[in-house]
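Protein entry
_____________
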Amino acid sequence: MCCCAPRLGFPDLDRPLLARVGPRLGTGSVRLVVLLTKADKLNRSESTLALSSAQAVLGEVATDEADVGLVLFSALKKTGIADAAVAMHRWTEA
């Protein structure tokens, strides 16, 4: 699991991590859920922009075999908790 603030995009520390696990993500041997945290601070258009920016970054490493999820997440408003839980629960059943 990887977390980042949607207004800031992927932090500099996350990009080398994505590059390193990218080949394993591409084959599906590593699964990833990215939580875009602090989503409660975004309006609808900012949320859409944050999702498309993150999808563009993940698109550089994802393939058809990859299991990569992307969730707008807010601990304050409890947004995205169920989506993240479903993704992780699905992994335990595989």
The two ends are 17 Å apart (CA to CA).
